[in-house]
Specification:
By secondary structure, this protein is of the alpha+beta class. 29% of the residues lie in helices and 22% in strands. The chain is globular, with a radius of gyration of 12 Å.
């Protein structure tokens, strides 16, 4: 199991959950992607439809530590 940190990700124009997952996790299987999307939905109760995210929306996302600027620091915001 990878060490994970939590970030607040600010959605950019053109983002969708698949592109965000690819950015932080690389290539994953369909099952892994679905599991990650389920986790993102669980961590973001206002995210009712994972296919509808909007620019400047903040999402709480668990990502592998190697992608965090400061591993262990859980309030990083991607801008």
């Amino acid at each position: 199991m990878q060490n994970m940190d939590t970030i607040l990700y600010r959605v950019r124009s053109g983002d969708n959950l698949t592109t965000i997952i690819k950015r932080y996790y690389g290539a994953v299987s369909l099952q892994q992607k679905n599991d990650i999307i389920s986790k993102i939905q669980a961590d973001n109760p206002k995210l009712i439809n994972p296919n509808l995210i909007h620019p400047n929306q903040l999402l709480q996302i668990d990502i592998p530590q190697q992608y965090c600027a400061v591993p262990g620091f859980t309030t990083a915001i991607h801008v």
